[in-house]
Amino acid sequence: MTSAGPAPPQPPARRPVAALRHLCAAALLLAGAAQAQSTQVLLVNAGQTDVAVQRPDQSIQVDIAPGARALARLYRIQWLLLGQQALRYDTTAIQRRAGAGRRLVIQVGGQGALYLLPRAAVGKSLRPPRQPRGFPVRPTRSVDLT
Fold first, then answer.
1. 76-106 confidence digits (pLDDT tens)
2. What dihedral angle (degrees, nearest 10) is formed by the CA atoms of 127, 41, 98, 34?
3. Per residue in 10-48, pLDDT tens?
4. Cα–Cα dist 64/144, whole Å
5. Are residues 138 and 112 in contact, defined by beta-carbon separation less than 8 angstroms?
C-alpha cells in the first residue's frame, strides 16, 4: 500500500478579489495623501482686509491682518478668505518651488494674487519683483460670501 501523502492545499477561490481590494485601498490612501500634501510658507498680507487661511476641513488655521505676516500651511487645493470673498487656488507651482525644504515667502495681493517674494523682502513694503514661471498664482474660483 503506497501513500501519496496529503493533497497539496488549494488556494482560496476569492484570493484575486482580496488582492484587488488591497490594491484599491492602497490607491485610495495614496490619492488622499497626495491631496493632503502641504507646504509651509510665510504669508505676507499686502491687502486692505484680513486674510484667513483655511484647512482642508474648512477650519481656519491662521488669520492675517493687513500688513502682517504669519506662517501658514498651503495645501494643493487651498481656500483663502479675503474680506467677503472666498478664493480657491491650485498651489502646485508653490509646492514645486518649495522643494528641497525651502520656506517660501508669498505675498497675498489686494486682488488675491499670490506673489513669490525674495526672503530679503520680508518686512519691507515693496512691489512684487518680476515673477518666475507659474507666478503669480491667481485664484481659480471666487465665491462672494455676502
1. 999 999 999 999 999 999 999 887 667 899 9
2. -130
3. 665 555 555 445 544 444 444 444 445 899 999 999 999
4. 19
5. yes
Element (H, E) at 15: helix 15-36
Residues 6 or more apart from 101 whose CB is under 8 A from it? Answer: none
Mean pLDDT of the chain: 82
Q: How many whole angstroms separate alpha carbon 133 and alpha carbon 93?
A: 8
Are residues 77 and 35 in contact, defined by beta-carbon separation less than 8 angstroms? yes
Instruction: Compute CA distances 8 → 4, 11, 13, 14, 111, whole Å.
Output: 11, 10, 15, 18, 72
3-state secondary structure of 33: helix
CB 41 within 8 A of CB 14: no
CB 108 within 8 A of CB 51: yes
Q: Which pTM was predicted?
A: 0.72
Q: Are strands 38-45 and 104-108 parallel, antiparallel or unpaired?
A: parallel
